[in-house]
Amino acid sequence: MAGAERGRTPLVVGNWKMFKTSGEGASFIRDLAEALSGVKDREIMVAPPFTGLYEAAQVAEGTCISIAAQDVFWEREGAYTGEVSATMLADLGVKAAIIGHSERRQYFGETDEWVAKKVCAALDHGLQPIICVGESEEEREAGATAEVLAEQVPVGLSLVRREDAGRVTLAYEPIWAIGTGKTADPGVAQEAISLVRREVADTLGAEAARMTRILYGGSVGPGNIDELMAQPDIDGVLVGGAGLQVGSFSRIVRFEKP
Ligand code: 13P
Fold this sequence. Notes:
Shape: globular
Order of helices and strands: EHEHEHEHHEHHEHHEHEH
Strand content: 5-15%
Distance between the termini: 11 Å
CATH class: Alpha Beta
Structural class: alpha/beta
Number of helices: 11
Strand order of the largest sheet: 1-2-3-4-5-6-7-8
Helix content: 40-55%
Number of strands: 8
Number of domains: 1
Radius of gyration: 17 Å
CATH architecture: Alpha-Beta Barrel
Bound molecules: 1,3-dihydroxyacetonephosphate
Low-confidence stretches: none
């Protein structure tokens, strides 16, 4: 049974990474809102860099698009140069935060324990966490995918209270598929995402696993979206490169229902 029949509204998130100035982001959102008029039964988010969040939230107000941040720090305030708290993001009208993206793990030393603290802070301040997990190419080749997910998912969820489980989203993004044009075969993505769901069940219970949306990310584009969304456990997608143009992103949002 597909996620939508289980009450998991499909979610499409565009992660802009370090692209677009505030003005470029605002005009993108205006054009996107127009391109998506009439789209129903799916949620749409874009995640601009911190510098574009204020303007993006203003422009997105009253449209079908909501705004996510690409990271969040776990403390509310304090002497943490360069960091931004969940309270500050919520104050701008931001609804969600991507946490533990592989680029943050790889370049900035982010750990599963940090992810857990950030997830907890996001939930405490009304933001929906989108927790990224996924194995590297070497780990996949070594047959260690299940082992990696069995570490990242339970640790990342370790501070989540059961009553908050429905507000958590996960994104399975195999590192070898990010920005490479090498999308995971839909069957491979489905298999890994079903493992993620099993880890959610083991950590937060079967009901939480039934409610939790799990996205796929890694070289998603107009050419593979329909087949990915036909998989029973894939509840949406986290899009990088193809999310930077209105044409390709709106085609992804308008995926065909199986
Ligand atoms: P690409 O879609 O460019 O592969 O990036 C995926 C990603 O990292 C989204 O968070």
